[in-house]
């Protein structure tokens, strides 16, 4: 199975090449089919890559004729293989769902453009996951930004254009900061390959301690903007709430996560555990992560539209990920990566369920969605299971993350932070439970509603069901997943 070493590059090439074939197709059904087919092929290749890694261990893959550090190099380990499976599986299910709903939010003449952007976006996200070269990661970040702007603005409404401009401006600022951080690292080490940068840093970190600290800070703030770290999240609510449902799901589930994985590579791979623990940057990440967990939920409680509630919930959930990174121990980092996995599946399901409710009822305000559980019992049921995970009900991945993050806090000697985790969970309940209760109960809420009158067909709900089943499976198999993550961190 040595040919499996080529699969990571093949995934990216399939997605990029197919994207530029789509404008040549005259019928939208063919474009949808090609996008879904290529994403499905990429998913199968990612599964084979994971199997190969499980049997043979991590490896480096040379792209082109030059060896590192002169040539482009991929590093494919357990974590990269898991992330590739996660990204392609979630994207495949979101695309499957979009086949039935995209025309209701995107004009017919822009459907092929929409799927072109999605394929480019996923290809660049996978490039960011696999690349062992900082400048190539930066290039993939920029491609991701432009494609993300496209899948937001494609709806072609005033709020989408405004949200896209806000995202583009702030994301450009973040990109500039990341590029400056990379420039500092290159100036000190003379390398862009992460493995070689780490080797040089180990030799010179005592001499360039302040410069390295600045580089770590620039990369953290720049990536923090792109991944909606509190209080750098200001672009997220408008972008996620105004975009088509499938775009919101991709943005929250996947686009936020790839830059965070890159930050983990930089802090714990390029700098290394021992060096990064000497820097104050981890304390900053921990503080902002804790603030995000609480303030994201507080802001979500104040929202009046369901998609804005879920968008601000993403700020809170990203806070948990940064919280784990900032703890500076192996358990915290393991749970940060685990939460990326659990949140990607859960939040994509929540956004698709909310999009289905808005599509069928024509209403997006919470006050107008009262009684929706009678009209769309299956859809709200799936939403409820996802919400329970976000709140932290046992067995579900949200609970697993919070439990082990609490243990990681104890391991780091930060006992007070357990209170922040508990407070955040209670705040999560305050904005999710009213949606569920008002959807299913109350005579005044259910009056005049016809049972299943707006419910989507089973074939349309099937990808949403599979996301929820996947979420439950992640919770049930959490120990095995965490063991695999630990293997990847060694």
Automatic annotation (TrEMBL):
Domain of life: Bacteria
Lineage summary: Bacteria, Bacillati, Bacillota, Clostridia, Peptostreptococcales
A Pfam family matched in the record: Proton_antipo_M
Record membrane topology: Multi-pass membrane protein
Keyword Transmembrane attached: yes
Protein name: Multisubunit sodium/proton antiporter MrpD subunit
Domain NADH:quinone oxidoreductase/Mrp antiporter transmembrane residue range list: 131-427
Family: Belongs to the CPA3 antiporters (TC 2.A.63) subunit D family.
InterPro entries assigned to the protein according to its UniProt record, in alphabetical order: CPA3_Na-H_Antiporter_D (IPR050586), ND/Mrp_TM (IPR001750)
Cellular compartments per GO CC: plasma membrane
Main location as per UniProt: membrane
Compartments where located: Cell membrane; Membrane
Keywords, sorted A to Z: Cell membrane, Membrane, Transmembrane, Transmembrane helix
Residues passing through the membrane, by range: 6-24, 36-54, 74-99, 111-131, 137-155, 167-186, 212-236, 248-268, 280-302, 309-327, 333-358, 378-400, 415-441, 461-482
